[in-house]
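This entry is retained here.
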Amino acid sequence: TQGGGLSTLVPSASHSVSVTFAPTFVDTFVSRLSFGSGIPPVSLHGLYLASDCEISADDVNFGALSVGSTDTRQVMITNNSAAVIEITPSSSSPAYEVDPTPFNLGIGATAPLQILFRPIQVLPYTGTVSLGDSPCADINCFGAGTPGGTIFQDVLGIFWDTGYFQTTTYVTQANTIVPGFLVLSNPSTGGGILGWECRVEASGPGIGLGWSLQGNAINLGSGNNFVVGLDTPLPYTDQTLLAEFQVLVPNLSAPTLFHVSPLFSGSVPDQMSWIPRSNPEALLPMNPHLIDPEVVARIEPSVPTGVDLPKAVTRLLPNVPNPFNPMTEIQFELGSTQQVSLRIYDVTGRLVRELANDTLETGPHTRVWQGRNNNGRQVSSGAYYVRLVTREKTENRKIMLVK
């Protein structure tokens, strides 16, 4: 309320009191506004209805992540409308990847959406994940790239788009043919490429259908081994296409993972390499563009309609960021609908702030702590503990507030 507090009214005078209704969950709310003795109270009633499409998080903060690393978050989408909703995910930023395959969300159904964050430079990233023409709100994504990741010079990678960014692609039908591109990114020396050598392997159901080398190239290797020479150099670009290939995905039983590695008896021991036009006698090392340990690209089968998804588990996840100032996101997942207590304690065990004391549904949840106690006062910097209490378990995690 506004305009409350102790007031004295003389005869014929008036005083205004405004009431704000700001519900945070679907329910009917009843309260009473009292004015003290001699004045009848006012009954307050409010009803908060769910939107046609509900998402578990409007904002997803990945925090700081080393360049070249990846992190995945899951957002739950619920259809509260009286009709089937068609969801068509897309991302405004190449740093945030989603499966673009459209899918229908039935009445009352809930489905997960995976968002992958991959920073390629040391800078902050913002982006928006749209769910198409559906009534679902956009999802705002935040994150930052930090030093310490993969070396992004003379980098060899596999991509599934002609923009040479998409390292994961999705297939929804068996016997799909997927085109791929082998690319050298950010060559350390200009002038062009006179040759290159490496080994390319795949694990999983995918079957290679053949390669097309760029330029007037000769491959002295065989099978998955490439020892390529060019009589005319490939022109220098930030991302130089070395070869194109195709993969047949005969079934959706498992992902197909791609690896690049040195030849067993290469020109440089234990190292992939390329030859620059500016110095034909040199062999410069190539670094793999890793998205997972030893994996540079993947073809993922999309989950068909009607297939049960993996069962969720109850756990307290790391807060992001940590250390933090002035606020941090505390994330946790529930394996079933249950009563949840989420509290912040100081190092002496004294309660600082209660963030949740509700019955919450299965799936991921996020609460934001702004470094304030239950009275709204800013607390001092130092170590604190997050405690998640459910009927299944109790978990604690140390967090740091810095100023």
Q: What stands out?
A: The longest strand covers residues 193-203. Residues 304-310 have pLDDT under 50 and may be disordered. The radius of gyration is 28 Å.
